[in-house]
Structures are given as structure tokens and as C-alpha cells.
Amino acid sequence: MKKLSYLLLLFLAQSVYSQTYTVLDSLHNTPVSYATISFGNGKGTFADGDGNFRFSKKWYPDIDSLYISAVGYKEVLLSTTSLPNKIILVQNIAELKEVYITAEKKRKYKTKKIPSEVHNDYFKSWLPTVESEIAVFFSKDSDKSTKIASVYLPIKTESSNRNSKRTQSFSTIFKMQFYSNHDSYPDKRLPYEDIIFKVTNNDKSNYELDISEYKIFIPKNGIFVSIQVMGYTDKEGKLLQTKKYSEIETKKGIVKISTTFRPLLPFTNKISKYKTFTRRIFFKNRAWQRFDKEYSTNNNLIKNNNTNYGMGLKLHLYDND
Question: Could you tell me if 13 and 157 lie in one domain?
């Protein structure tokens, strides 16, 4: 009986382990952090900082293929019936050639702030999901070399205005990326390092992210700064592998509803022009859409003209040599 119990426990342990997969670099055999795991149906998930992700047919019974991708690597298509424990990504040489080498000189600079727009209204806030990325445009308004020192991110920690005296704890990982501007739309991803950061319920509503060490300079045509939620973290700050959407049975059949994560992102009507763009990471080839009436006629934020995420910046304007 003891032997049978031991074998049963061993089987269960192997079963759980078989659902954990690791994405590795083909050249160095090192983990590919936060690789994108697309299900091919407009949904997906991410690997964690160690390249690990979990997939289970019990979670996603209708998924038969996974598309594994990461910036600088060629995409891999795998069948879910025969997923290897180690998934190897080959580097994309064409993308790796685009690297910025910045030897920052010690120069005097002036600090300029583009203030963020912060509020605490649940009904004027975006509910983040892993499938969405939000990008905000900032122009280069000076002929001086301009570095982004900090990004101000408005956040709302409560899930609603009710019972606001009690704030449930959470810890969410975000990824920040940067894009060039082409015809007033986000274009090519600028070859800066992805910035991974964590937001918790203890953070201030005007969250300041210091990115001065990354040496992000605004190009002549301006820059798009984007944020994308990766998911909740455990107590050690590692990405939790949780189901990213729920299946709701309706009269029209099963509808897949994406899981939303806190903090909420306040949108505003106090910014002129349409500077905010969104896209679904796992859908329509990641096409960017301007957040206006062409994006949706039913979206309540757009109906009330809250069409911009109130992101702000702290800039360092350097004296020209």
C-alpha cells in the first residue's frame, strides 16, 4: 500500500512537472525572459523571468497549437499534443543588428516635467488585461538632446469606488517598451531593453518609474512609450502562472472573457489630440489602433471623451556641445 501511494505521488508530481515548460536561447542555452505564448485564438500568456510557463489541457482544452515568440528571436509553432519541456528559440540576426550603443557624456542638463493626469474615478479607468498594450505619444519639443529620466504612470489601486476604505493587496508585473513614430502611429520597436517593473497596492496614484539608467533618448519625430501587463506575482516577485481568461456560457455559446488585473489605469479628457494607441498582443497581427471613435462606438471611455491615458514624463534636456 505504501509503495502504491509512493507511485501515485510520483505520478502526480511528474504530471504537474510535465505542465511546466522552459523557453531557452539556442546559442547560450539561457532562459528567454517573458517570452510571448500565443494560443492563436486572440488569447495567450507569458513566460516568467526564468523563461518558464505552464500550460494545461484542463485549462485550455480547445488549444491545439502554441506560438512562442520574443523580440530578437524567430517565432516557433508547436503542437500542444507533443510539447517539449525545453523550447528552443533561434536568434533573429536581422533584429539583433539594430542595437543602440550610447556612451552618455557628463553634460549639464535642465529638467522638464510633462505632468500626468491623475484621478480616482473607476468609471473613467481602463481595466488592464494581458492581451492589451497601451502606447502614448510624446513629441520632441526641443532641439536639445532629450533623455527620459522618469515615466509617471497614473494608477488606481481599488477595483471600484465601493468600499474604498479597504484596498485588497496585489502585486502586478508590467513591461515597458518604446516605439518610433511613423505617420502619427507607433511603428518599429526601438532597440532599447525591455523594462520590467512591479506595481503594488502600496504605490502612490502617481507612480514614478525611474528609467534614467536605460538612457532612453527621444528621436526627432517623437517617441511612443508603452506599457503592458504581464500578470500578478508571487511573494518573491515572480510572475504567477494563472489562467488568463475565463469561459462564460451565454445564449450565443461560450464566450472567452479576459482576466483583468489591478491597478486600473485612469484615462482622461484633459489631453488635447489623440495620443493614446492600443493593440491586442495575441490578435490581428498586433495592429495598433488609435483610441478614438473608429476604435469603438460602444466603449464608455470613448463615449465620454476619455481617450487618453494620462502618462507623464520627467525629461533631461542636455546642453548641446
Answer: no
